[in-house]
Amino acid sequence: VQLQESGPGLVKPSQTLSLTCTVSGDSATFSNYYYTWIRQPPGKGLEWIGDISYSGSTNFIPSLENRASIARDTSKKQITLQLTSVTPEGAAVYYCAGDRRGGILGYEYEYWGQGTQVAVSS
Fold first, then answer.
1. Among candidates 21, 43, 7, 38, which has minimal Cα distance to 118?
2. Residue 103 and residue 94: Cα distance in Å, rounded?
3. Across 88-95, average pLDDT
């Protein structure tokens, strides 16, 4: 299984950031995993954003739950993240991770994407 993030490298403040994680591998594997979005701002540690379960239920960090949404498309084997009203503090490397478990697992996710850099600037 491989995960590949994609999206714009630059967004303007107050815009909506949309990222996609494309998962390789068979559909059964895709369907049986939780998928998580994590970001790492420059010089800082990992920040868990939220995850989506097999059934499509989502959880988010409280500080982002009003601005973030995660969806999964089984036919495309993709996980999407949308983050509205982006601020400069949203500049980070954004990672997609997959695991059979949900929740905040630190570095212990079974699968990781390579990450995609997002800058926030006008």
1. 7
2. 17
3. 97
State the Cα–Cα distance between residues 102 and 120, nearest whole angstrom: 29
pLDDT at residue 27, as a whole number: 83
Which residue is listed with tokens 């499509």?
56
In angstroms, the CA 34 to CA 101 distance is 6
- Helix runs in 1-122, H state only: 27-31
The residue-averaged pLDDT of 22-27 equals 90
Please report how many Cα atoms fall inside a 13 Å half-sphere around the Cα of residue 17, on the Cβ side. 34
pLDDT tens-digit series, residues 49-62: 999 999 999 999 99
89 DSSP 8-state letter: G
Rounded-to-integer distance, Cα 110 and Cα 40, Å: 18
Q: Are 68 and 58 in contact (CB under 8 A)?
A: no
